Amino acid sequence: MRNLHKIKLLYEKYLNRTATHEEVEELFMLLRDRNQFQHIHNIMEDEWERNDIDFSVENLSWEKVRSEWPTEQKISDVREMPIEKHAIWSLKIRKIVAVAAGVLIAGMMLWWWTKTNTKEYRTGFGETMEIVLSDGSRVLLNANSKMTWNTNWQNIQERTVQLEGEAFFEVSHQRMPVNNSSPDQKDSISLMPFQVITSDLSVNVLGTSFNVASRRQKTDVFLKSGEVLLVAKPPLPRSKNDEKKTAGPSLAKHMDSIYLTPGDHITYSGITRALERHEEKLPDEPTSWVDGFLVYENEKLETVLQELKDIYGKSFIMEDSTMLSRQVDLGLPYEDWYTVSELMSLSLEIEMEENNSEITVKKLEK
């Protein structure tokens, strides 16, 4: 509370242009606490109302500020105003500038908080990374992937991951108290949500294990155990067969949702809005890489090569394009590229000529 009072005093001095350089620095230091943002918002609104400024943070735009700013014609009109009106107009301009400056400070601090309260993990081609998050959840990050974890999860009571690439998650249970005025539910508890966000959708879970791959403008989700709720950014396509597994009302405007149960495997593209359900030949095929293998059963060679490109960063040129539709069965160790390419050549009876990261695939001449 003492800090909040200090912030109010410093902010008022900032608006009045009486703050020293040291006091502005102190204001920024105090604003580092993300939990103060709502209080700061309230302080700003109180200050604006006290100065008779009709303004809402939600409606702030530079267009509004510019519309209130005098043009050359307006400036000349101001010069011809009586002194009293001129002073009122100048005060109005100063207040508008103060509002914009105040929001700019809050925005800068929000950016600062976002950058300093996240931790980023990256993998290169051909490597994986085992990660234990601060909440106890375990993640295996696949090759050529990036994951960002919000380390402030305890304060905001929400666990959030941003994912580009592929990862396997084993989410831990984290309990949090429920604020409920009902006497019989006063001491009840709930599980803290865990959310994985990709460019196409968000995977919302409580405690479960699942695989998420976000590549080539689509997201692939395989649920191994537990239950997850997928929330898509554009609406999900609906069918009668999906009614039992699809949430009734939309969770938010322009969004829709679908539940997955163990064994469910879907691919969704936010661009094409195409939803595909997969019937797995092998129960754990989508997560075979977690155990150190790349397993493909009756899969198109084109699909295999796409995944190998994602993992190892290789580009493939087919001497005969009809080979891409060939159905193949492959079991490859998740090893270095040399081992993988040698086993592929032997198993598929093909020749692979490599030039830097570009590989030409040919049929083996008999």
TrEMBL record:
Domain FecR protein: 120-228
Protein name: FecR domain-containing protein
InterPro entries cross-referenced by the UniProt entry: FecR, Ferrdict_sens_TM
Family matches, as PANTHER family: PERIPLASMIC SIGNAL SENSOR AND SIGMA FACTOR ACTIVATOR FECR-RELATED, PROTEIN FECR
Species, as recorded: Membranihabitans marinus
Keyword Membrane: yes
One Pfam family per UniProt: FecR
TM stretches of this protein: 96-113
Listed GO MF terms: sigma factor antagonist activity
Top-level taxonomic group: Bacteria
Alphabetized UniProt keyword annotations: Membrane, Transmembrane, Transmembrane helix
